[in-house]
Structure formats: C-alpha cells, structure tokens
C-alpha cells in the first residue's frame, strides 16, 4: 500500500472537496482519498505508488490545480 | 410577473451557486433564478410575488443563509 500527499489550490467549500475526491477516486488502484479543505492537503492511498501525472490530471479535471 | 432580489451569505464557488439555484427553482411559480456570486445577490423571477419565507427555506435547505 502507498500513501502520497498533494496540495490542491482553489477549493473553497465542501462541494469542491467532493469534486476532487470523486475524480481522484476514479484513478485505478486508488483505495482512499482524504481532503483537508483549510490546508488543501489531499492524501491519497493506493495499492501501488501512483503516477503523479494521473493525480494532477484528475485534480485538473475537477477544476482545481495541484501545486508543483 | 414579479422580481425580487435577496442577499445570500456563505456561497464561495460555482457549486454553491448551483445548489442555491436548484433549490430556489423548485419553489412553485418561480420562472427564473440569477445568482451573482461576488455580491451574493439572488434575483428571483416568478409568476406572482413570492412568500419570502419560502425563499428563505429554500436557501437554508441548500445550506446557506438569507440576510434579513
């Protein structure tokens, strides 16, 4: 199992949290997503280490940005 | 036709706008809802003048507050 934490900017409310969570959960191998709205920290648990580009794409699909 | 403008607090993003719009549109007689996010102004068009309590209830159902 693998855990990685990313920082997402632009989330302002619970709806934003839901949008990011849903998109990231759709990545193959992801088993858990935890979002902390005030800090923008998104912790992703997966069966194997994720390709960060996949996470970035999911976050951008939701309408937000990953900090580099 | 009747138009009334209300001020809603707590909306922070487009999802919030959608939530308020959807709830207010469900009020019987409402024909149009326009939300301006930066100001929180919600303009409601209806066939006949609305009961403000109905609008307040809809906004609160969406999770936001109407200023008095």
TrEMBL record, chains A, B:
Q: Where is the HMA domain?
A: 2-67
Supply one GO molecular-function term: copper ion binding
Gene Ontology process terms (BP): copper ion transport
**Keywords tagged on the record:** Metal-binding
Leader peptide range in chain numbering: none
The UniProt entry, under Gene3D superfamilies, shows:
3.30.70.100
Task: Write down a Pfam family by its short name.
Answer: HMA
Name the InterPro entries for this protein: Cu-bd, Heavy-metal-associated_CS, HMA_dom, HMA_dom_sf
Q: What is this protein called?
A: Copper chaperone
């Amino acid at each position: 199992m693998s855990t990685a934490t990313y920082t997402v900017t632009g989330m302002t409310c619970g709806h934003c949290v839901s949008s990011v969570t849903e998109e990231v959960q759709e990545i193959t191998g992801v088993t858990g997503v935890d979002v902390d709205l005030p800090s923008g920290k998104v912790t992703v648990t997966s069966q194997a280490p994720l390709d960060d580009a996949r996470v970035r794409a999911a976050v951008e699909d939701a309408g937000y940005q990953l900090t580099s």
